[in-house]
Amino acid sequence: MAALSAWFWNERFWLPHNVTWADLADPAPGVEYPKAGHLLSALPLALGIFVVRILFERFVARPCASLLHIHAASAYRPAAPNKVLEMVFASITKCPDKRHLDGLSKQLDWDVRKVQRWFRQRRNQEKPSVLIKFCESMWRFTFYLCIFTYGILFLWQSTWFWDTRHCWYHYPYQVLTPGLYTYYVTELAFYWSLMFSQFTDIKRKDFVIMFVHHLATVSLISFSYANNMLRVGSLVMCVHDASDILLEAAKLANYAKYQRICDSLFVVFSAVFFITRLFIFPLWILNSTLFESWEIIGPYPSWWLFNSLLLVLQVLHVIWSYLIAGIAYKAIVRGKVCVIQEPCRSTYVVTTDRTTY
């Protein structure tokens, strides 16, 4: 076990040349550097956030939904009770192929189209109601708004917010301040809580994709914390949270059937997304991680990995910007907006009709 730990925490991978873990282990009195062990505090905090979410949805979001006349009743017609089909649905397949359809049609003496209709109605029964989706979006909107506000207030007083070169001066001997620690660990705990809640929420078809996404986010935050790239990491988190607030607000308006507000929020969300992901992120953050850091501290193995992951993230930004641009065009043509799940950081608004998927 000790050999595995020594291999994983190899100084030549994690730290710049001529820096060792011993150099960071004994800072001056009153000074503290990030340590991997600090990340464990995110786990009980994640559990606390999960409990707060349950209470928030029960005592805040649901009353708000009731005021907006959003109720728990499903918009879909329930499937007629049938023990044979229910057994197939639960234990064999939820989307039967032609062979299964023909067999069930003969067994029940039903038309194939009737069997198909039953399975479609049964699948629709498992979709979360508008009330559940409204409560979930209201929780995320509230969290993103609070953490983004905190991030802006904290970063506004930070030197690296105004001059990104300060992300690398004296690296890795950069002091961990209480504000930076709170910002980082709270974000990390939130994504841990999303992973926990996936197992208690209604299981959706994008379960695996979103689980992998949350795991990747947790890994990236933990990685940047472990090698003390918190300053630039805080900028990355702030840039991403900016558009997520508007996204959740648009979804709330959509669930409440305020179509004009939803359309307007979508336009604002698209503009903020393009500005933050296609301009601010590459020109401000990537410029710092790739060029300013090269000039000030020089490259080393974890530096290459960190920048590779940020470049992959930027590729995703470009792909999603292209899709959102196509969505915006359809919105102009059709003038209607709805919401679907996105296999990346969160969800994005898609325009087709007034139905919510």
Automatic annotation (TrEMBL):
DNA-binding region: 87-130
Membrane-traversing stretches: 36-56, 141-161, 181-200, 265-285, 305-325
Location in the cell: Endoplasmic reticulum membrane; Nucleus
Catalytic activity: sphinganine + octadecanoyl-CoA = N-(octadecanoyl)-sphinganine + CoA + H(+)
GO molecular function: DNA binding; sphingosine N-acyltransferase activity
Record-linked CDD domains: homeodomain (cd00086)
Domain Homeobox: 85-129
SMART domains: TLC
Residues of the TLC domain: 132-333
PANTHER family the record matches: CERAMIDE SYNTHASE 5, LONGEVITY ASSURANCE FACTOR 1 LAG1
Protein name: Ceramide synthase 5
Organism encoding this protein: Esox lucius (Northern pike)
